[in-house]
Hints:
The chain has nine helices and 17 strands.
Amino acid sequence: MTTSSPARSSGPRPSADRLARLLNLVPYLLARPGIEVAEAAADLGVTERQLREDLELLWVCGLPGYGPGDLIDMAFDGDRVTITYDAGIDRPLRLTPDEALALVVALRMLAETPGMANRDAIERALAKIENAAGDLGGAPVAVRMPGDGDRADTLRGAVERGRALRITYYTATRDETSERVVDPMRMLMVGGRAYLEAWCRRAEAVRLFRADRIDALTELDEPAVAPPQAQPHDLSAGVFQPTPELPLVTVRVGRAGRWITEYYPCEQVRPGDGDEWLVSLRVSDLGWARRFVLGLGPEATVVSPPELVEQVRDVAQSALDAYSVPDTAAGFASDGAPRVVPRPATAAATH
């Protein structure tokens, strides 16, 4: 079952729970035409409001094409609802060879993902689909996830054994490598990457360490003992969660630089002159912001803060100076030294 538009929701709910409820809702209503919404909500263990939101979502679910005769349809008579077209959901599912292979590949990828919980359930589902797919299930398809799976397994073992770790870690925001002792708390998977959440004795705070940025680690004999104030992060909104105390950076970007508004959490996006946008976002470190803006090249102009404007200007000028070379065709200065002529170079513009 596919959807052609997002559902409206009154609040956050686990998507997996809602999907299971939607899949059960159609056969439930098919077996009970004309049932009252209140009765159906009580049977399904949801509020009437949640059920009505689910019915609204069902209205845009169905088969590819999303035209008349493709989407699930229903009729309301006061507070009673009847499914008038089920888009074939009542028929047994029969996968095409391509669909079966896609499921096998997806489940194998999940099974290979470092830190994935409920791996036994994934392997059981994979075995059932491979058995149903017959010869296709044994197709020579190898799936390997990017990243350091062995490192994630080692970290997971340290968490399970409750041991402190000495790690060498690369911090991308500051472009530096440091050594620190941490007390592991748990392993996480966020955005397809494995993270170690631990109490960092150097920072005296809970920190997240990306597994693929841990260059070296040693499991210590001492136990991992996080202090009482060490609380797990709420990562429901992602790893990076902007807060008001972080520096606010504003850049002017052209059409080719608009992609940053989709990739990074932005506080404000305003139209500028012509095709330009003024984009404001929080950053954890101005050093990272400097490298980020310079990487955008001529597509970005720093507007604020002033210290970032100065840093980008200095680095850009240094890059231009590095392109200055002796040009014998330009002749010589009065002291006999060859004239130095700067070659044109591309650098991030600043105010």
